[in-house]
Amino acid sequence: MNETVPRNVPTFAVVGRVNMGKSAVIATLLEIDDNELVRISPTPGETTRCQPHRVVFGGVECVRFIDTPGFSRPVEAMRAIQQLHGEGTPGLETLRRFVAEAGEDFGDEKRLLDPLIAGAGILYVVDPAKPLRDDFLAEMEILRWTGRPRLALLNRRDDATGPDEEAWKSRLGGSFNLVRTFDAHHARYEERLRLLKALLEIEEQHREQLEETIRRVEDEWQQRREEAAEAVLRFLESALELRVTATLKERDLHLPSRRERKAGELSKKYFTALAGLERDCVRSLLGIYRHHLLKADTDPGTYHGIDLESAETWSKWGLGRNQLAVIAAAVGGSAGLAFDLMTGGLSHGLGAALGALGSGGVAWFKGGSLPDLRIDFHGGVKLGAGEGRSLAMGPPKNPNFPWILLDGVLVRYRKMLARAHGRRDEELLDGGEGGFTRGFPAERRGLLQKWFVSCLKGAPNRALEPEVFDALLASLEEAERRS
Question: What are the start-end ranges of the H helices in 127-255?
């Protein structure tokens, strides 16, 4: 028995002509963006031997895919097989003789047929933008002769359709059990999952194992989303509690130029620390989703993340001013209501009304403004005689600040999930258009705002965290659907 095709594991050989995207299909399907594991190159014939790739859960191999050399002389190979067989239609035994007796001039064909003879199913990859020539028809015939379960995959490039695509589908439909379309450079999770489910339609022998594999893939994806939500929650909490400190000597307290210089130094220190928190969160997400060529930055010293010093960021990202005013009024009204309860109702609801009015008004007028990072020089902690004051800065006094942070993470999360692992170009995970948070349900906005306020005060509301986690989980799932 061929060692690459175990009897108890569903195995599929990925075959086709050279440079049709076989390796890219495997890389995207199995989320491998490492050339050491799956090498993808525009050079024809890059795969020169059969390379098994195992899908393992809990230490148990669930399914195996074999990357094979591409057909190099299919027409000549077809004729040689027919000559070996004589009259009638060749079958598995004739293919076995061909592999054993043919010379090395058919080396690629022999190597790709070897796992098929041993029992592997077939995933045949073609580029529908290519003309349907005789050599492709010869490949289909040879694969049909194996009698193995066969799925044909039209590997579109950038959603481009060729003039011969309908002809492709017609001819493939006559030789294969199933025909599906796929784009190895852009396929997302749902498309990858659909491809795995398509294998169920052609493989009866290992149906139960394939169903279990699909369940495990779905469970693992949910687990990854939960890990991502936890990483985002940690980032938001750390960012909203972030303060940076410095000491201003007593003799400098009354010198405006030195006070301004110290404020500039603290501001730079604050934004650098904030960018570091964001970078660490993005790196965690990249690790969770197995991206190595998509990077948070090229140089940690130059990472800037969300551009909080851009007026465009503060006007287009996060919530709109009306939304900010509504949720700020609601949270402020809740605080005022607590005051009313403490007074036994003697305030006649004045606390709730004033709280809502004040918070809503601040949110309306400051929601689209630039970040307000100031040092309270008079409020700084006074040190010993002659030592000066210990000063602190952060976070920005803008009600949209937490929402912009969340928008920035969701934008990067969406871009991350939109990148297929079959690509081999390095890319920076920069920002883009925001606006995710503006589409949140009002109930979710209100919940998050309460938690944001508690974090900004330096005392995160732990009782709210389970609900906040669920809200972030739902937000990531929505961003995933928009990727």
Answer: 134-146, 165-175, 189-200, 207-241
